[in-house]
Structure formats: C-alpha cells, structure tokens
Amino acid sequence: QRARDILAAYYDLYFALPNRDNVLGPSHLFFSTYLESIWVLDYLAAAFILREVNALDERDIERIDAIANEAATIIAEFNEGMSNRQTWNSAALTAIATWFGDEELAVSSIEGRTGLLGHLADGFGADGMWFEGENYHLFALRGLLVGLQWAATAGATLLDDDAIASHLGDALMAPAWTALPDLTFPARKDARYGVSLSHPAYIECWEAGHAMLDDREPKELLPWLKALFAVKPRKEQTYDAYLHEAALTLPVERTRADLSWWALLVNASSLPASAEPWRGASRLMEQQGLAVIRRDSTYVSLECGNVGGGHGHPDRLHLTLAANGVHWLADPGTGSYTSHDLFWYRSTMAHNAPVLNNRNQSAGERARCAAFDVNGDWAWCSGTWNDIRRAVVSGPRWTVDVTYLDSSQPVCLDLPWHIVGSTTEASGETWQPAEIPGEFVTEAEQFAPGIGDGVHVSSRVDDASLGLWFMGDGNLLRASAPGLPGSNARRTFFVRRWEGNTAHIVTVIDHSGAVTDAKWDGNTIEVRESETLTTVRVTADSTVISSSGIDTILSGVQAQPLPSVSFVRDQPVITAGQAIWLDTAPALDGSLRGFDRSAPLQMDEEHHYFRSESAYEGPDAFSATAWVNWSDDELYIAVDVAKDGLVMRSPDTPPSNLDNEPEDINADGIQVYWRGHDRQSHGWLINPTPNGAISARPIGTGDATSVRGAWQATSGGYRLTVSVPCPHAAAMRRTERLGFDLIVNEMREERTRRSGQLIWSGGPGWVYLRGDRHDPADFGELELVG
Questions:
Q1: What does residue 434 show for φ and ψ, rounded to 5 degrees?
Q2: Which of 59, 368, 548, 598 is a good FRET partner for 391, with 20 to 30 A between their CA atoms?
Q3: DSSP bridge partners of 710
C-alpha cells in the first residue's frame, strides 16, 4: 500500500512540473533526461511488481500509462548517440516497452545502434573499457545491466549468445584490470579522485553480472568480488546517486546486507564459499590505449589512445605511479563541474603529461602505445604523441622515465611532475623567477644552475618515501597550483622545461629507498644501489636492462592501434560564404552604413537551429541575416536578428552561477569564431547592453579589448554591428578561405536559460551544455573576396 501511495503521489506532480530550463535534455521532474530515465526505471519497477500481484486498479494503471507514455516521448526524442547517459535512456525505453508490451519499441531500444546492444558493442571497446574511462564505465555498466534485466523480462534472451556474454564479461572485468593497488579507480578523464570500487553501488554491478552470466562469467570475477568485500569502508566517500544508505552509520565492514533492493531481487542466492585470491596483472588495454604495469604494491601506467569524448582530458602520455600504499603521481580527475577549478583539472599542465608551446593538447590528437612488454621482474611501455616519445621502464625497486623530443622546428616542451607528500629539493642552490603561463599557476621559479646530472627531489608520506633524479636535457622549475580535488589547498609542483628541436629528458624514480646514485651519459642510464650497478638502455623498439652480468630484454612492439570506439558523426557538409573587402571601416553604430551587403549569410531554417525543450518555431519567430566584410586586420560583422523582444543581462545583475558558464550566455547576443592557417581558433561572446553599447568576452584566445561595436532596436528585433581583430587576414591572399562561424543566442523573458541558438554552419542539434564551446571542426568557410 505504501508503494502504491508513492506511485499515486506522482500522478499530478509529474505533469504539473514544467519541461523547461533543463541543463541536459528535456525532463519534467529533474534537470536532465538521463535522470528522468533513472527515475522511470525505478518507478516502473514498483508499478510492474504491483501489477503482477493485482495490487493496482484500472485508475492506477491509466495514470501510470500516461506517465510512461510521456516519458517515452521525452526520452526517445533526446537521443544522445554513444553516451553513458544514453545507456540509461535505452534502459528506460526498454522498461517502458516491457510495461506496454510494445515489441517495436523493445527492438529499437535493445538492438538499435544507440540501444543496449549498440552501447555494449561500441561503447565498451574490444578491451571491455567504456570509452570515457572508469568513472563513466561504472555508471554506464549499471545502466546496461538494469536494461539487460528489463530486456530479459520482456523475453529477450540476449545472454544466450556467447559473443554477447563474453563481451559483457570483459566489461565487468575492465575496471579491475586498471584498478589502483588500494582498489580505487584511477581518476582518468572526468572522474572523481580516490573513489573506492568497493562502494555498494559498484559491488552490485559485479554481483548482478555474476548472477546473470552464471557459469560463463570470467574466472577472475569471483576473486575480484570477494576482494572488494574485504576492503574496509571509507568514511569520506559519498555517492549522491545511491540513497540506499543515506544517513546511516558506516559499517565496520561490507557485507551483502549493505546492498540495495535491486541486489536483493537480482543477485545469486549466495556466493561460492571459496575462490582464488585476487591478483591484478600488468596489462595493455589496447583500445583504451592504457598501459598498466604491476608488481606487488607498485603500479605504473601510461595513458595513450584517444582523449575520450566530451569527458576526456588533454593528457596524452600522462604518467601515474602508486607504490608502498601511496599514490605518488596521480591523475587528478575532476572536482566539481560548477567550480572554476574545473578548468585547471582539464588542462594538460595539471597532469604528468607533456605540454608543447604552453598550450593544452588538442582534443583531436591521439597518442599511440608503441611498445608494451613484461619479462620477469621488469616491464616497459612506450607511447608516442605529436613529436614526443615517452618510454617507462619499471622494475622491483625503481622506475626509469625517458621522454624524447624530435621536432622539425624549435618548440617549448614542459614536462610537469605533480608529486604528493612533503617534497624537498637539492639544497645549497638558488631559485630565480620564471614564468609558467596560466591563471591557476603562481610563484613560478627556475632552478638557477640548470639541471645537469642527478638533481634530486624527494618526497615523504608517513613512513613511505619517493626519490626522483632529474637528468638529461631541460631546466627544473617549480610553481604553485591547486592540489588534488577536495584538498582545498595549493601545492608545489615541478616542471622540466626544454626549448629546441631535440631533447632527452630522463628521470629515475626510486619508490623503495634503494637508489644511492643515478647518471645519464647520453645513451645509457646508470642506477646504483649501494654496490650494485644496473644500466638501462632504451631505444625506439626495445629496452635492455643489465645487472650482475645478466641482460633482460624488453620489446613488445605494438601494431597500429585499434580504431576509436566513440560514436562517430557523419562528416558535415562545409557551409560556405563570402566576406567582402572594405577600403573604409563601416560606422559600427548599429546601422548598416558602410557595409557591403552583396553576400548575406542566412540563418532562417530549421537546420540552423540548436534547440532546448521547444522545437524551432520558424523564421518569423526567430531568424537572422548577417554580412561579413574584412580589412587587413579586422572582420566587420552586421547581424540583423528577427525576434520578439530583446532580453539583455544588466552588468549589475547578480550572478546566476549556472553550470560554470559565462553569465551572458543566457541572454540575447552572438558568438563569433574564426580560424586561420595556424589552426588556432579565436572567439568572442558579444551581447547588447543598455544604451546601445555592447559587451564582449573572449572565448579561448580572443582579445576582447579590441572588439568595437553597437546595437540598435529594429521594427522586427535588433541589429548588432561589430568588428573583431583578425590580423591573420593580412597574410592571406584574396580568394583564400577563412574558417568562420556565427551563432545567435535566443533568450526569452520567462526562462532562466537560453532557449536555443541559430548556427550559421548548421545543425540541427541541442543547445544543452554547449556554453560558448563550439567545435572548430564544425566551422564554415568564408572566401575573402577583394
């Protein structure tokens, strides 16, 4: 009866709450579609069970039908392609199909490219890992498992297929293969730092997988599951989406009794009494591009592969190290999506990864794992990115890192080292002021004498210590930046810097306190442990470790990497237009005086519109015509917007603090982007302000101080006329093409968030989470006509 009362409480509430101002996809009850999907899965689970035992009357069922039908319409409309959220959307549509007995909906939500099987095949790659990393792997895995159980309820016996069952087994085990020694998952990409895999929400996934696969489960699954139950609960860990144990006292140890109602319904009745102990192993996750080297309590990894979708970080060739119970070199992951330090954690400099020319790595550039091999006590991996090759050789007591630069032109290479613990540097030397660009980095200094051989930095956490010998090319810098997420403190980090065409930056990392000296002679690393001398010689395709007359050879050269597992869009048609040369600058007073209007850019069709909850209402409600002119160093842009009412954001309006986005994004205005031969994008967010003035904010590398312009009201809306700097144009011949795009934001008085955008290069699509970000791959092209 209580369950029936809860279902009934939603009947009126669901339709009373507006489908408006959502963050990510349409929804009545929440701010995002995927949350509506998660809710409707639980809602229909209760309804389904009550209906099976005849505890619902016809009126109850009619109202549940109405909610399920509306939810199906909303969820099906917002298909996110290959996304962790879409896994839950597909699961919800499978549940709705089961509730109604709708075979057509069931087939599409289960077997479609963006359905359950599509996500299993394409999202969880050939190595089993979800393309967005461990954090979103676990989220998508739970949605997949719930969806598969609804599919089974509908009569789809998917796991009778050996290939499907095997791939699900790989997906279940993938987080185990990359887990850190303390059984937390590495905070790769947009992951939270230091999260234990023994949380009940995660244990339930492996419990459900064990029950679903039965005798076809991977042989390592049961030892892994039992190892998780042996981990002591962590007092600091919370999981907002798991309310089963909210406000309860943390148990001394985990048992199956800590799991939720879902586990009660789907788990096997008991776990077998005995199993082999869990043992992680060195492993190359080929499609993810992650090389993991393990030995006892030591864990070393090198990140290659793709950046990893929208949740990826520009951190190719990032180095992770954990040893003796300490996570010495960590991937910081991401803290809060609404805190400004998000932009630090999503930068290359925040990682132990190479930075070229003071810029973040490009999202489109992948790294390749060139070699991976294990031989006795030794293992190595090698990765290449851009003009850089990084090789990591790890043994019982220490690890060698060699970063090679081979560029056709001089570059600035920075190699950051973010070390936990209390660090000390070589004594008796001085530091001089230096510069490391970026708003989050302060107090930069350079080690005065240059690096030389064997400059030593040490760190300590409790009784554990770490020593680093910096050798080879490059100067040593140190600076202050935000610490790991949740620490609320700044920390000192180190950078090796080299400017030139070629370099060998060498580091010996002592994680056992055994190394007494280390040297580099230009070809060979010599590591001394008291009376024992070991040499390491690294080449492009092999490594030779020599000690006490014994050579250990590592090779394992890798073939070309597997193709990307992310959902690939069809290549859009490139939109083309013209920019007309002007001898004299136009008035830029909100009028069209001085503009050449012979080549208009039209934005008045549905394919130009990126929407939120409401579909495009047509050109009479919202459309725009633009004209672009140019001179040697400026673009002149006039935009005539047809729209009922202008919604401006006053400069003294209190901040709304929505989604870590510019405040003016939720107001009427435009976004302008251009890109030239150097492939560097420049952009501005430009808004009308009171009294005919404009405000301008740079996007990326734009310069807002050079933007000039004004606006005027018109009989059908408003007109903006602006100039933006484009010094690149002077170097381009007439009739060359300039990468360009123009976006017109639409705001309405009754809304908190903008309702849509017109995009010159076209769509259609959804405005959610776009902010002022715009993929340069989508830019159109302007022919510079003289």
A1: -145, 180
A2: 548
A3: 721
The dihedral formed by the CA atoms of 47, 52, 56 and 60, expressed in degrees to the nearest 10: 40
3-state helix, strand, coil in the chain (%, to 5): 25, 30, 45
Measured at the alpha carbon of residue 168, what is the angle toward residues 164 and 172, in degrees to the nearest 5?
170
Cβ(649)–Cβ(687) under 8 Å?
Answer: yes
List the helix and strand counts (H, then E) for the chain: 12, 36
CA angle 257, 260, 266 (to 5 degrees): 95
DSSP secondary structure string for all residues of 695-749:
EEEEEET--GGG-EEEEEEETTEEEEEEEEE-GGGGGSPTT-EEEEEEEEEE--T
Pairing of strands 576-581, 622-630: parallel
| Whole-angstrom distance, CA of residue 648 vs CA of residue 445 | 44
pLDDT in tens, 706-752: 999 999 999 999 999 999 999 877 777 666 789 999 999 999 999 99
| Mean pLDDT, residues 291-298 taken together | 94
The average pLDDT across 650-662 equals 81
Distances (CA, A) of 676 to 223, 739, 776, 781: 56, 6, 11, 10
Residue from 37, 80, 76 nearest 769 by CA: 80
The closest of 250, 242, 247 to 203, measured between CA atoms, is 242
Listing DSSP states for 476-545 in one string gives EEEEEEE-STT--SEEEEEEEEEEEEEEEEEEEEESSS---EEEE-SS-EEEEETTEEEEEEE-SS-EEE
Q: Tell me the mean pLDDT in the region 97-124.
A: 96
Residue with tokens 């879902």: 262
The span from the CA of 612 to the CA of 372, in Å, is 46
Question: Would you call 7 helix, strand, or coil by DSSP?
Answer: helix
Q: Comparing C-alpha atoms, which of 323, 283, 325, 280 is closest to residue 299?
A: 323
Burial class (CB in 10 A: 0-12, 13-18, 19+), 645: exposed
Structure-token pair, residue 152: 């089974």
Nearest alpha-carbon partner for 507 in 520, 498, 516, 497: 520
Confidence of residue 492 (pLDDT cuts 50, 70, 90): very high
Q: Is the pLDDT of residue 566 over 60?
A: no
Q: Which two tokens stand for residue 683?
A: 């952009």
Neighbours of 271 (CB within 10 A): 16
Q: Quick one: tokens of 517?
A: 């000296």
The DSSP result for 656-683, as a single string, is ---TT--GGGGSSEEEEEEE-TT--EEE
How long a stretch of residues is the chain? 786
Instruction: Look at residue 384 and give its three-state secondary structure.
Output: strand
pLDDT of residue 452: 57
Q: How far is CA 434 from the centre of its chain?
A: 31
CB 208 within 8 A of CB 266: yes
Distance between CA 123 and CA 703 in Å, rounded?
Answer: 39
The DSSP bridge partners found for residue 375 are 378
The position carrying tokens 């609960």 is 233
Q: Which two tokens stand for residue 434?
A: 């230096």
Alpha-carbon dihedral of residues 647, 649, 653, 655, nearest 10 degrees?
110
Supply the pTM of this predicted model.
0.93
**How many CB atoms lie under 10 A from the CB of residue 222?**
18
Q: Which tokens in the block code for residue 335?
A: 């803290």
Name which of 196, 203, 201, 160 is nearest 180 in CA terms: 196
Q: How far does CA 715 lie from the centroid of its chain? A: 44
The crossing angle, in degrees rounded to 10, of helices 221-229 and 162-178 is: 40
- Neighbour tally for 654: CB within 10 Å: 7
pLDDT of residue 568: 47
* Interatomic CA distance for residues 616 and 712, integer angstroms: 25
